[in-house]
Design brief:
Length: 184
């Protein structure tokens, strides 16, 4: 019994996402044949959210992200959403129109999201799935819809706290004056 438990824990560790880690190259399809590349946003704090356009939790998260893009965009924050359900290409234009998103919303294959997030391939992902990426292109945090500590009652505040922390990284060091050499 102990051996079985240890094997299960070891298997879970293999599939657990390592954080922080470099964000892999990612291309998201946009309607009209265009693509966006995650690498184009290096230097910004990015919230990359994989959604289902009809998912109520995803729609709620989109509402928060619209406000966050408006409030934090001028400080170097960028939201990107990618719908991953079957028929996403046809669903995205209506989703954008309904929610009046102020950030790019495209579509991609569900396996791309699973691989990007290092999600266990044998578990059904709970939506939405969100990755927060720092200015250097490192995934610093990620959450799935089953994470009540993040997506629970305090979701809006949790998002804002994470975004603020990433936007503020390194600013304290920049504000401090350089030390002058000691006079002899």
């Amino acid at each position: 019994m102990k051996r079985t438990i240890l094997l299960l824990l070891a298997a879970a560790a293999v599939f657990a996402a390592e954080l922080p880690r470099k964000a892999p190259d990612l291309t998201i399809q946009m309607n009209g044949g265009k693509t966006i590349h995650l690498a184009d946003y290096k230097g910004k704090v990015v919230a990359l959210c994989f959604i289902l356009t009809t998912c109520p939790h995803c729609q709620k998260t989109t509402g928060f992200l619209i406000k966050d893009q408006q409030d934090y965009g001028p400080r170097g924050f960028q939201v990107i959403e990618s719908a991953i359900q079957g028929g996403a290409e046809a669903a995205v234009p209506g989703f954008i129109q309904s929610f009046h998103t102020n950030f790019p919303v495209g579509f991609s294959d569900g396996m791309l999201a699973i691989n990007f997030l290092q999600h266990s391939p044998d578990k059904v992902p709970m939506m939405p799935m969100l990755a927060l990426i720092d200015k250097q292109g490192m995934i610093r945090a990620q959450f799935s819809g089953s994470d009540e500590k993040f997506f629970g009652d305090q979701q809006e505040q949790n998002l804002r706290t994470q975004i603020e922390a990433l936007l503020n990284e390194g600013t304290a060091a920049k504000k401090l004056p350089r030390k002058q050499p000691l006079a002899k």
